[in-house]
Design goal:
This protein has 343 residues and is mainly alpha-helical. The protein contains 18 helices and no strands.
Length: 343
């Protein structure tokens, strides 16, 4: 009897890298649409500007590395990186902030390590953390959402990007930041006294998270990635929040629903930790990876200096991904774990 001689993994799908990247870009559209509705067209303009810049940097890096730009530009991977980074940025970020982020993501996060498939860290989160550490004031300047402030138009959005010194937008603290700074109010009182809070979380933010949840669910349905990492992250984040909720006292870290629908939770769960290159590879490994991201996310939010900790939690676990893979690899069919593997 003749057997087909192939190496693991043995599952092969009909989707190419280009099709996967296109699907991810399509899945971001609901979240981008809701962001645009509540915060104005700044995110769209950042995505367009960042995408053009990312393509130029990718082309230049490929030429310097003696690679074929045409071949690699067609996989859309650099557009996915730039789009994810620009979604995470404040909507009315100045051009130099977007440029610094894209440069860090494409060059430091991707090409320094050898390009797509060789990067140990999520490139978009590398760019985001570089900006967050270097320019904390600009990275915390979020536009007041629709209903709490006037939404800028396209002309004002272009002014904020290209001539930032002449743009004076209305910004306010995010609900995560308000909760972190709360010292004396009960959770119910905080909701009643802070206009930024909506029915479940922050005004606008709750619907942004629901939109990214919908896009992520569609990606799972398409088979772009498995449910293991997102579900594990959301479960452990909710479990930690339930333990620390403390019936809503002034020391409470917030309810599970608040954490699920605040900040970049759903965006991180379905579009960041599911990166197949920088995350764990086996299903069991993805469960561990996602669960640890959820724990770190909660701990940094309630005890750290950064209200939304998705990027830090992901990069820390990117460090640990090879270690997780080492202890969660499935046993080859027909073999038993060796004593060496158990040691």
């Amino acid at each position: 009897m003749n057997f087909l001689r192939i190496t693991s993994p043995h599952g092969h799908g009909p989707l190419t890298t280009t099709q996967v990247m296109q699907a991810v870009l399509l899945a971001t559209l609901p979240g981008i649409g809701v962001l645009t509705w509540f915060f104005g067209p700044g995110t769209l303009i950042n995505i367009l500007f960042g995408g053009l810049l990312a393509l130029a940097l990718e082309y230049s890096a490929l030429r310097l590395r003696d690679r074929s730009p045409k071949r690699y530009l067609q996989d859309y991977s650099v557009l996915v990186t730039s789009t994810l980074l620009c979604i995470a940025l404040p909507p009315y970020a100045p051009w130099w902030l977007v440029t610094a982020g894209i440069l860090s993501a494409v060059i430091l996060g991707k090409h320094v390590f050898g390009g797509l498939g060789y990067n140990p860290f999520n490139p978009a989160m590398v760019g985001y953390v570089v900006l967050l550490i270097s320019f904390p004031l600009q990275m915390s300047s979020w536009q007041a959402p629709r209903g709490l402030g006037e939404i800028p138009g396209v002309a004002e959005s272009l002014t904020a990007l290209l001539v930032p010194a002449s743009y004076d937008g209305v910004t306010m603290a995010t609900p995560l930041d308000i909760l972190r700074q709360n010292k004396g109010l009960l959770i119910d009182d905080l909701y009643n006294n802070s206009p930024q809070f909506g029915q479940w979380a922050g005004i606008g933010w709750e619907w942004v998270n629901i939109a990214f949840l919908a896009g992520g669910a569609w990606l799972i349905y398409r088979g772009i990635f498995t449910w293991h990492a997102p579900v594990a992250m959301l479960f452990t984040l909710g479990l930690c929040a339930a333990i620390g909720f403390d019936s809503g006292s002034s020391e409470s870290g917030g309810s599970p629903l608040f954490h699920w629908l605040s900040g970049a939770t759903m965006f991180g769960a379905f579009f960041i930790i599911t990166d197949p290159v920088s995350g764990a590879t086996s299903n069991r490994g993805r469960l561990v990876f996602g669960a640890l991201v959820g724990v770190l996310l909660y701990l940094i939010r309630v005890a750290g200096n950064y209200p939304d900790a998705v990027a830090f939690a992901v990069l820390i676990l990117n460090f640990a991904a090879p270690f997780i893979d080492q202890y969660t690899q499935p046993v080859t069919y027909g073999h038993k774990p060796s004593k060496r593997d158990d040691e």
